[in-house]
């Protein structure tokens, strides 16, 4: 069991490696100069940019979080340096052939656990901002996610230590989903009024989606297991369904499905007036993010397993799986054991997967001309059963925001249970940040990390395109002089 747990994050990273949204990357999304980077959390973000144009050269990030297992007294770098000698803590009583220098331990808590990892790369993308109140954007990139929200308590090694042999145990229903996909999208936003006057803005991202790889494992009605020995278990009842693309190893870049997605948002700005140095007083925006799905229909298999009589499962029967296609090999062995033939569990060749849909709400207060405080809520919306379940986030982010330098200190609560402190710094066209700073400094319980970086190029002078005052007579803070409309 431990081997499966240990390699799960590695498989997750391999699954996501060929990508080109880490969780929310607050340091990239919230600033006044976020430009094209901000539209993933707020489709009206292009309107907020005081610059006429913004080009993302490349940006990337990775996020991982769980409340199932952790590395003791470690940082991301120390864990990476000791990958070959990480092993289970002695208290877990898990056999391991290598002497460990870093210990993996498990949260012994009376509740179901979760595992979540997301990754992204945004390729060259552009946004232009017109003085007429219109903003346009074009973006392209790749995303990936692997999520399970319901790792059962019985998976905890400390719980297993107390399970007597020969006693029937029920495993509750659970669902694991994963997907890698590409996005080609356009952004449009329109502002009625301007920041100094205040007003309403509306925005939309429309996306064409290309599904590369996807899978799900669904335990529909729970499973009943009886542990016989250390290496063997009797499956007394099971109703399992799984779907996956079968060319992950041979062609991970394949397009195995197509879909459409959309983000829609609205923003209200309370203006600062002409006599105030602040660009605005307050902004509030709300959005529905990642509404859409991909239908996988190429190189796709669905399998279902429902047992009517008990079955003995031995660990040794599933050792040394074919490294080129371990999932297929495991299914072949299972089918052979159950039914004496290779394809008895096969049920179909397509399945849909919904994007990580969420509701986003933000409030942004201008304290001074360059100091701001942002409040953020991202709440997942379960619009379908087969969905990449997004992490819930609440965050307060104070920031310093000027043309050539910016800094943020996001304080977030992940899934309403874990507090994280982050740091992001923007120097001219380069932004580097993390929403989980302590994972790099060292933690007593390292259970995840987050990092992102972006290289951009944008206008040297403030002012929206088509503004006669662009680059001239600007207000302090990089805002163009107000041009009254009649």
Q: Can you offer a commentary on this structure?
A:
With 486 residues, the protein is mainly beta. It has a single domain, classed as Porin. The protein is built from seven helices and 29 strands. The strands form three sheets. The chain has a 21-stranded antiparallel sheet that branches. A four-stranded mixed sheet has the order 3-4-2-28. The N terminus and C terminus are likely disordered.
Write the layout of secondary structure elements.
Blueprint: H1 2-16, H2 26-29, H3 45-48, E1 53-66, E2 69-74, H4 76-81, E3 86-88, E4 102-106, E5 113-122, E6 125-129, E7 134-151, H5 157-161, E8 168-171, E9 174-194, E10 198-219, E11 223-229, E12 232-237, E13 239-245, E14 257-270, E15 282-296, E16 300-306, E17 311-314, H6 326-339, E18 346-348, E19 351-354, E20 358-366, E21 371-380, E22 393-401, E23 405-408, E24 411-414, E25 418-421, E26 423-427, E27 430-434, H7 438-441, E28 443-446, E29 448-458
Parallel strand pairs: 3-4
Antiparallel strand pairs: 1-5, 1-6, 1-29, 2-4, 2-28, 5-7, 6-7, 7-9, 8-11, 9-10, 10-13, 10-14, 11-12, 12-17, 13-16, 14-15, 15-19, 15-20, 16-18, 20-21, 21-22, 22-23, 22-24, 23-26, 24-25, 26-27, 27-29
Strand content: over 45%
What is the straight-line distance between the termini?
Answer: 71 Å
Domain module count: 1
Based on the structure given, which CATH architecture is correct? Beta Barrel
* Major pleated sheet: 21 strands, antiparallel
Low-confidence stretches: 1-22, 471-486
The radius of gyration over CA amounts to 25 Å
According to CATH, the fold-level topology is Porin
Number of helices: 7
Count of individual beta strands: 29
Q: Report the structural category.
A: mainly beta
State the shape: elongated
Overall mean confidence score, pLDDT: 85
The helix content is 10-25%
CATH structural class = Mainly Beta
């Amino acid at each position: 069991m431990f081997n499966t747990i240990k390699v799960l994050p590695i498989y997750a990273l391999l699954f996501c490696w060929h990508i080109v949204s880490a969780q929310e990357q607050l340091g990239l999304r919230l600033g006044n100069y976020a430009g094209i980077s901000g539209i993933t959390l707020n489709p009206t973000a292009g309107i907020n940019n005081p610059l006429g144009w913004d080009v993302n050269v490349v940006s990337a990030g990775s996020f991982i979080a769980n409340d199932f297992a952790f590395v003791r007294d470690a940082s991301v770098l120390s864990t990476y340096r000791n990958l070959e000698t990480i092993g289970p803590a002695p208290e877990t009583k898990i056999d391991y052939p290598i002497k460990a220098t870093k210990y993996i331990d498990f949260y012994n808590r009376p509740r179901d656990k979760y595992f979540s990892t997301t990754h992204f790369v945004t390729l060259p993308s552009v946004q232009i901002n017109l003085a007429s109140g219109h903003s346009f954007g074009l973006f392209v990139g790749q995303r990936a996610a692997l999520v399970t929200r319901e790792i059962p308590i019985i998976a905890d090694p400390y719980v297993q230590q107390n399970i007597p042999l020969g006693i029937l145990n029920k495993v509750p229903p659970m669902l694991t989903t994963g997907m890698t996909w590409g996005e080609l999208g356009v952004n449009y936003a329109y502002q009625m009024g301007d920041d100094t006057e205040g007003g309403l803005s509306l925005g939309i991202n429309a996306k064409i989606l290309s599904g590369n790889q996807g899978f799900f494992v669904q335990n529909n009605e729970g499973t009943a297991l009886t542990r016989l020995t250390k290496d063997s278990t009797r499956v007394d009842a099971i109703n399992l369904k799984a779907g996956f693309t079968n060319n992950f190893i041979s062609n991970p870049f394949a397009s195995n499905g197509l879909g459409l997605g959309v983000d829609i948002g609205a923003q209200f700005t309370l203006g600062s007036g002409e006599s105030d140095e602040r660009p605005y007083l307050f902004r509030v925006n709300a959005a529905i993010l990642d509404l859409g799905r991909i239908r996988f229909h190429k190189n796709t298999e669905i399998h279902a397993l429902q047992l009517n009589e008990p079955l003995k499962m031995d660990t040794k029967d599933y050792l040394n799986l074919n490294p080129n296609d371990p999932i297929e090999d495991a299914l072949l062995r299972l089918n052979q054991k159950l039914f004496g033939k290779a394809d008895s569990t096969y049920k179909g060749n397509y399945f849909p997967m919904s994007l990580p849909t969420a509701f986003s709400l933000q409030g942004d207060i201008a304290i001074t001309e360059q100091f701001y405080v942002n409040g953020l809520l991202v709440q997942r919306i379960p619009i379908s059963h087969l969905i990449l379940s997004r992490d819930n986030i609440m965050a307060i982010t104070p920031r310093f925001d000027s043309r050539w330098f910016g800094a943020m200190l996001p304080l977030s609560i992940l899934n309403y249970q874990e507090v994280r402190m982050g740091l992001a710094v923007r120097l001219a066209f380069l932004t580097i940040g993390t929403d989980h700073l302590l994972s790099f400094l060292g933690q007593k319980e390292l259970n995840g990390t987050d990092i992102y970086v972006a290289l951009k190029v944008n206008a040297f002078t403030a002012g929206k395109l088509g503004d006669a005052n662009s680059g001239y007579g600007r207000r302090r803070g990089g805002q163009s002089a107000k041009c009254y409309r009649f």
